[in-house]
Write a structure and sequence with these properties.
The chain has 583 residues and is mainly alpha-helical. The chain has 28 helices and seven strands. Keywords: Membrane, Transmembrane, Transmembrane helix.
Length: 583
């Protein structure tokens, strides 16, 4: 009881909040030092975001969303948001006069995610405190510096992509969905937050869709204020989405349908959702019982679906339909984030322990909390469970639960600690340890099972020796040209050097995918044909790396085997191997 009263007192809570912020920041300092010293820790998306920011700062037009140094002269069309580029460009512009362009980028790679992490901590604490009390709020804060998907790829040093912003926006949308007061204002705010998330990227579209479905369900059940919340949400979403599209997309592209950004198919969806919601709310004045409202909802939904189908059908298969089936099979099968969770249970125990088990454990604990509370928290459980369940379709769907996992952890842990039954307390302790110790447990598992030197991990570790800004800086000593590169090195080459590249992992160009994989894994004739086709001046590899099979041309070159049409370019002890193409 003493611990509970400590957690629940206002004084201890006020002390705990800044303490946990400092704990989060302190936990990031080792990675921050590495970022400053050699520029390591950026994923491909992190590096590409900084490239976009630098291009914008250098004068590239606001509406020009091409990466002109990928596959020149045509370039690579990007679907990312200028609303993320803009504030980072302002920060970079302010820092550049004092630190230089390269160091300014490294500082932003530290400051940007940590600032967002602090915002997420404060928002999570405030919402959890309001919904479940101070004890749950305190416990929720323990997750953020402990769970890899939040402390690492979410808000960790180097995370300059857009996912952290989306996590915060979706936490806000969840709050606007469940907070009971001022339903119209909550609905409008939720619609604006959802539209902002869509403008940043479509990754959270299922989270937004679930929020809308839950608002409709609340209306069907006759919950107080549900009609006003639904009206405000659907109207704000339908009105704000096209405005945000217009703010970052060239007017000549407004009518061009695409499936990876706001465009006519998505606008048709948000407009139809508003019209359908308006019809439901109007019908609700005359239809009062849940059964009757459910019937009207199904009828309106069916009509809306039939009308919408022609507009959205091309996008139902996902954003990769522009690629041939052969390319999808040979290239996309390598993308780790689109593999199902079951793949990792069979192949990567470390990832299961550090990334998957924590959110599964929190989901189960919070489900018990909801059952014990006779349904209280079922909306939160729906969002959390969606991420857990859909991860068995694609691993990246786990991100759907990230906005609310800390809230659920705090509420579930507080419930377990308050129970008299030993099984409940022990279960709560097990979940707490599973989450808070997930990273050290994963490291211990890998050491015990000797998974670290395995083939997949070995490849990743070898590539990481080449994937930092200091390694790329040595390329500045050679004449600028087009580099034929492995796919994972494309963005960091762009960020760390003035060279152009032939490959980057972005789906709007099948060539950008294929160039960085198949030629390196095939034979010499295939590589030479690809190099000639792209007019590349250099071929770049990571020394000692393996590209496909042991007898592939990429593997042979990485081992130092010479070829008459390629000349080694000295790079002063770098892990990179740069070969000049003879013309």
């Amino acid at each position: 009881m003493a611990k509970a009263s400590l957690f629940e007192s206002e004084q201890s809570y006020r002390a705990a909040l800044p303490t946990m912020v400092l704990v989060f920041l302190a936990s990031q300092m080792p990675d921050a030092r590495v970022m400053i010293s050699n520029g390591a820790g950026l994923t491909t998306d992190d590096a590409m975001r900084l490239v976009e920011v630098r291009d914008l700062l250098a004068g590239q037009a606001w509406y020009d969303l091409f990466q002109h140094r990928v596959l020149p002269p045509e370039g690579l069309s990007m679907h990312w948001s200028r609303y993320i580029d803009a504030p980072m460009a302002l920060m970079m512009g302010a820092l550049q006069p004092f630190f230089g362009l390269d160091m300014a980028g490294r500082i932003i790679a530290i400051l940007w995610p940590l600032m967002l992490g602090v915002v997420f901590i404060l928002a999570t604490a405030a919402l959890t405190k309001r919904l479940y009390g101070r004890q749950a709020a305190f416990l929720s804060l323990l997750v953020i510096p402990s769970y890899e998907l939040l402390a690492g790829s979410g808000f960790g040093v180097g995370s300059t992509d857009h996912h952290a912003v989306q996590i915060i926006l979706m936490l806000g949308l969840f709050a606007m969905t469940v907070l009971p007061d001022r339903p119209m204002l909550r609905g409008v705010a939720g619609g604006v937050l959802a539209a902002l998330s869509l403008a940043v990227g479509l990754e959270m579209i299922l989270f937004i869709g679930l929020a809308g479905v839950l608002m409709v369900l609340a209306f069907v059940l006759g919950r107080g204020g549900s009609d006003r919340r639904l009206t405000g949400f659907s109207a704000a979403l339908a009105l704000t989405t096209p405005l945000l599209m217009a703010g970052q997309l060239d007017p000549s592209l407004w009518v061009v349908p695409v499936c990876d950004a706001i465009s006519p198919p998505l606008l048709a969806l948000t407009t139809a959702a508003f019209v359908a919601s308006a019809v439901l709310v109007l019908a609700g004045r005359f239809v009062q019982t849940p059964m009757a409202r459910a019937g009207v909802t199904l009828a309106v939904g069916a009509v809306a679906g039939v009308i919408l189908l022609p507009a959205i059908q091309p996008c139902l298969a996902g954003p990769y339909t522009a690629m041939s089936a052969e390319i999808q099979q040979s290239v996309l099968s390598r993308i780790q984030e689109i593999k199902p969770a079951s793949f990792y249970f069979a192949t990567d125990g470390g990832r299961v322990i550090s990334l998957l088990l924590p959110i599964y454990a929190v989901t189960l604990l919070f489900a018990l909390t909801v059952l014990a509370g006779r349904g209280r928290g079922v909306v939160l459980l729906a969002f959390l469970a969606m991420g857990a369940v859909l991860s068995f379709w694609q691993f990246r769907m786990l991100t759907m639960g990230l906005p609310v996992v800390a809230v659920a952890f705090g509420a579930g842990a507080a419930w377990a600690m308050s129970q008299r039954a030993a099984w409940a307390r022990l279960g709560g302790v097990a979940v707490i340890l599973c989450v808070l110790l997930s990273r050290p447990l994963a490291i211990g598992y890998l050491k015990l099972n000797r998974e670290g030197p395995g083939q997949a991990q070995g490849k990743a570790a070898m590539s990481e020796q080449c994937n930092d800004l200091d390694q790329m800086a040595v390329l500045n000593s050679v004449p600028t040209g087009i580099v034929f590169n492995p796919i994972n090195l494309g963005p960091i080459i762009l960020l760390g050097s003035p060279h152009s590249v032939t490959s980057a992992p972005y789906h709007r160009s099948a060539d950008a995918f294929v160039n960085g994989t198949l030629p390196f894994e095939g034979n010499e004739a295939g590589l030479r044909a690809a190099v000639d086709r792209t007019r590349a001046d250099y071929v770049l590899l990571c020394k000692g790396d393996t590209y496909g099979a042991a007898d592939s041309i990429g593997t042979a070159l990485a081992k130092g085997e010479p070829r008459s049409w390629l000349t080694d370019v000295p790079l002063n002890g770098s892990n990179l191997l740069l070969l000049k193409v003879a013309r």
